[in-house]
């Protein structure tokens, strides 16, 4: 039975960097994936009310102001 411990917040970032290195991709922040996903969905014409739920924005105004450039 595995020992359950709290997640070290640095682990996802370390793993992500490792994946990027092994794939030969440039370094980006893990958080950048959130912005990329939202931007791509907006460019595809997905409704802003649907998109705001993915990054967890409580108000659509946050989503609209952060991604107004798309």
Topology:
Blueprint: H1 10-23, H2 32-43, H3 48-51, H4 60-66
Description:
With 70 residues, the protein is mainly alpha-helical. The protein has a domain at 29-70. Helices cover 53% and strands 0% of the residues. The protein is built from four helices and no strands. It has helices at 10-23, 32-43, 48-51, 60-66. The longest helix has 14 residues, at 10-23. It is extended and about 40 Å long.
Task: Output the number of helix runs.
Answer: 4
Q: How large is the radius of gyration? A: 16 Å
The structure class reads mainly alpha
> Regions with pLDDT < 50 over 5+ consecutive residues?
none
Q: Look at the structure and give the mean pLDDT.
A: 87
Percent range for β-strand residues = under 5%
Strand runs, count:
0
The biggest beta sheet reads:
none
What oligomeric state is this? single chain
Q: What general form does the structure show?
A: extended
Tell me the helix content.
Answer: 40-55%
Report the order of strands and helices.
HHHH
Could you tell me how far the N terminus lies from the C terminus, measured between alpha carbons in angstroms? 48 Å
For this entry, give a set of tags:
4 helices; 53% helix; mainly alpha; 70 residues; single chain
Quick rundown:
The chain has 70 residues and is mostly helical.
